[in-house]
Write a structure and sequence with these properties.
The protein is α+β, with helices and mostly antiparallel strands and 66 residues long. It has two helices and three strands. It has a three-stranded antiparallel beta sheet, with no helix packed on it. β2 (38-42) and β3 form a beta hairpin. The radius of gyration is 13 Å and the shape is elongated.
Length: 66
């Protein structure tokens, strides 16, 4: 089960119809740098919840373990 979900309307593909994953991986899961909706797996709630900058800061600080 993925920890993060990123919802995109259209995925960029190469000339051979493979997804361009390098750009997505380089952008990571920083909600301040990404305009697409981001969701994180909240195991306590048992569902995916929207990832905002406050929650991302708590994840980086180790207050929320994934």
């Amino acid at each position: 089960r993925p920890l993060f979900l990123r919802l995109v309307a259209d995925l960029a593909i190469t000339e051979t119809f493979k997804p361009k994953k390098q750009q997505l991986a380089a952008e990571g899961w920083d909600p301040a740098a990404i305009a697409d909706p981001l969701l994180v797996d909240d195991r306590a709630a048992g569902a995916y919840v929207p990832l905002d900058t406050a929650m991302a800061g708590r994840i980086r600080a180790g207050q929320i373990r994934l």
